[in-house]
Amino acid sequence: MTRDDIMTASVLMTDTIFPDTSLEQSVFKENGIDFELSPSHDAATLSELGRDVDALLVVYAQVGADVIDNLNHCKVIVRAGIGYNNVDLEAASRKGIVVANVPDYCQDEVADHTFGIFLALARNICHLNEQVRHGTWNANDGKSAPRLRGKTFGLLGCGAIGQQVAKRAMAFGLNVVGHDPYSSAEALSRQNIHKIDDLNEFLDEVDYLSLHLPLNDQTAHIIDKSALGRMKESALIINTSRGGLIEEDDLYNALIENRIAGAAMDVLEREPPHGAPALSRLDNVIITPHTAFLSQDSVSELRRKASQEVARTLHSGTPAHPVN
Asked: What is d(CA 30, CA 24) in angstroms, rounded to the nearest whole number?
């Protein structure tokens, strides 16, 4: 008789940003799985409480090798979100633990937010609103806004969210191009996205650049001084993906030196920042506090799908969305 024959499966939720864990508990109860929320997400606590559990459900906690090496029975680690750079994939793979994420939620929310902050930046909406709030009514401040129709909107990363952004861009008469080594020209063409294989050529061409990439060793600081130097001085950059994709000091310098026209971001390399970031003090920058994924519906969808992914893997041995 094995341990699995005599013990109920168990899951440890490493951390949460949600007001309670009732939704998670409901899913696990339906599936006969014991649930515990860790009182702290430091490595020592997670190592101790995770020693004998069958699964980890992770929100923002760092789950590194120091935690994973102490997981004696864990079969799956599920990241409640799209990104998974807070989980050490190599350490998990060495232990034979599958890591999974939830890539198929909040696509509409992120695409809407992407295009919303892009429009606010392109039309100078936040600056004009601030002027009126301070008693200045000057329509001439709006004359610098470009006409969008006919301009080139570039997607750096053409996955599900990027394709949703493309649909919104096309509705405004923008020509959409994409750079993505993992998507074929034929597949993107079916979405009316013209693929540009060479990254430098892509950066040369775009009027507006929207980032939709995972953060990893290959993509970290993919937008740096060199990349910014290739772009048009009138170009705008939008990032609702991961803050580490942009070298923020290089972006700041490009903005104050008028080598780039503006930036709109929902993510920063350090979250939360220490006080107001330097970029936020520029009139041609919009920053929101990592809220693109949020809506009245998306959070409950995420929590349910992440919990179901844990249950599915413990019962069948195979998650729907493995990443390692």
From this structure: 10
Residue 80 φ then ψ, to 5°: -80, 80
- Which residues touch 22 (CB under 8 Å, ≥6 apart)? none
Compute CA 55 distance to the chain's CA centroid, rounded to the nearest angstrom. 23
Compute φ and ψ for 192, nearest 5 degrees.
60, 30
DSSP 8-state assignment for residue 145: P
Per-residue model confidence as pLDDT tens for the chain (324 residues) = 344 544 689 999 999 999 999 999 999 999 999 999 999 999 999 999 999 999 999 999 999 999 999 999 999 999 999 889 899 999 999 999 999 999 999 999 999 999 999 999 999 999 999 999 999 999 998 898 999 999 999 999 999 999 999 999 999 999 999 999 999 999 999 999 999 999 999 999 999 999 999 898 999 999 999 999 999 999 999 999 999 999 999 999 999 999 999 999 999 999 999 999 999 999 999 999 999 999 989 999 999 999 999 999 999 989 999 999
Domains along the chain? 3-105+297-316 (3.40.50.720), 107-287 (3.40.50.720)
242 tagged catalytic: yes
Give 64-72's long-range contacts (Cβ < 8 A, gap of 24+): 64/88, 64/91, 65/90, 65/91, 67/43, 68/92, 68/95, 68/97, 69/95, 71/95, 71/97
Write the CA distances from 128 to 64, 179, 312, integer angstroms. Answer: 45, 33, 50
Q: Which of 179, 242, 303, 312 is catalytic?
A: 242
Q: Is 320 in contact with 309 (CB distance < 8 Å)?
A: yes
Amino acid at 268: L
- Annotation marks residue 271 as catalytic: yes
Q: Give first-to-last CA distance, the chain, whole Å.
A: 30
290, 301, 304, 321: the catalytic one is 290
